[in-house]
């Protein structure tokens, strides 16, 4: 598609209060006129974990429709793009002034957003419904990660999803998390030819929550500095396996991206015992870049 229009975009760092940390996101706040193929090419060109494109909402209860692309495919839902795009919607005046609750429309459906006011707003999303899938052989997962069987806790790795299927592997300590290195061929063998792409999330429980890393080569992301879509399922998995309190009001923090030099802090709030009334994931956003792209050049 040839497109001679100019499209303004913002780059923000999500799940951090420091520039050049957290997880970078490009947001096109007025993307009308871009087709699917051009959006995918732009996401590949910018080569961030995700790029979002904002369109007028179709649903009357939503403030905007948000499309999310990695460098290689479109996502139905993702956490840091949802948080980062919500920040841009607020800054661009696309949400009623002072609104502390609104809803964005994504492929997975409506995603509720809550703003916790402060000198810098803490932006929360409500995690979509969490589903549990198959468990995996711990020895196979350990080998895939270049680890030994003794590096894993005695908890079977399992696929858990809030839109993006993710294999959670509980490790004994931070050192094991930092030593993990995903073998792409091993992941493809684990997934199988006919299965949906999987992410692999390794973590160790900490007094505050978790120390984490996430690998998603099948989405074109070797390692993700911060994965909001996996953090709600992480909290659920930890509660189910006795690694976190199940009490209503429990707060956790998942530290992710530190190993790759992009420290990110993902806040979690449990609503209802064992999260029966929902799990919120929140974070701060730091603006970084304003630019213009002309895809027709």
Q: How would you explain this protein's 3D organization?
A:
The mean pLDDT is 94. The chain has two domains: 7-126 and 284-293, Diaminopimelate Epimerase, Chain A, domain 1 (Roll), CATH 3.10.310; 131-277, Diaminopimelate Epimerase, Chain A, domain 1 (Roll). By secondary structure, the chain is α+β, with helices and mostly antiparallel strands. It has helices spanning 36-46, 79-91, 138-144, 174-179, 184-191, 228-240, and strands spanning 7-14, 23-28, 50-55, 64-69, 74-75, 101-106, 109-116, 122-126, 131-135, 158-161, 166-170, 199-205, 209-216, 221-224, 251-256, 264-270, 279-283, 285-293. The protein is built from six helices and 18 strands.
Topology readout:
Blueprint: E1 7-14, E2 23-28, H1 36-46, E3 50-55, E4 64-69, E5 74-75, H2 79-91, E6 101-106, E7 109-116, E8 122-126, E9 131-135, H3 138-144, E10 158-161, E11 166-170, H4 174-179, H5 184-191, E12 199-205, E13 209-216, E14 221-224, H6 228-240, E15 251-256, E16 264-270, E17 279-283, E18 285-293
Parallel strand pairs: 2-3, 4-6, 11-12, 13-15
Antiparallel strand pairs: 1-2, 1-18, 3-4, 4-5, 6-7, 7-8, 8-17, 9-10, 10-11, 12-13, 13-14, 15-16, 16-17
Helix pairs in contact: 2-6, 3-5
